[in-house]
Amino acid sequence: MTTILITGGSGHIASAIRPLLGHYRCRLTDLVAPEDALGVDEEFVAADITDLDAMTAACAGANLVVHLGGHRQERPFDEILRVNIGGTRAVLEGARRAGVRRVLLASSGHAVGYATVADARREPVLDPRPDSYYGVGKVALEALGSLYADRFGMTVVSARIAAFLPEPLDRRGLSLWFSPADMVRLVDACAVLEGPGHRIVWGVSDNTRAWVRGDAGAAIGFRPVDDAERHADGIPGIMLPGLEDEAQIAATALGGTSVTADRELGTDWG
Fold first, then answer.
1. Residues 6+ apart with CB under 8 A from 185
2. Which residues are catalytic?
3. Does the structural domain 3-259 have CATH classification 3.30.300.10?
């Protein structure tokens, strides 16, 4: 059975996908244990992602590292630097030292938050345009993934995860939703991906109103199947596809409210 190490193993993404990972042996690592009981093929290792020795030990025997750990929203720059950037470096170096060849890094749409929907529809992989210190941390995560792939021949995928939720909550979610089941499909694709190199893909489901392209994901065998449209009836005020103001949508920044003037850098936006 394939063994995967999941950093941030007690976080919201890991908690949502764990019930769907029964075909793996899962080693979870985080500062605190998950609230729910561990399954038969699950184990927990308490560790800090910034601790290189702990990460090296946690990676031992794993076939794939899924790096979900770190702050999940805006923080002061020093915290982003220490945890999100330093932690990613420790995870990648720990994987390298332990002989793990495949790594899936959780990047974010905030790495390109100032890009518009029109930009994302035109290009499969956008150049970095971070909208926050958090976004800067994700750009650095992608750069570290590229470095380790090129220098050490590792297979690294950085997934720009958009709106990961059990179901979409609003118009934005209908376009950027990423379902737990599709996240597992991304893990599955990375677990068997051959060939060294760094790839950037979108962590977004196969949404009817998608704002981003799935070309890069398809190139690594990631083919999402869930569609946010099946939840559209539960969202008030949503117009049918094709009846919306396409010009307004095209000009929308991918980062949403993260690019507005009242969002002070380094503060907890809640």
1. 222, 223, 224, 225
2. 134
3. no
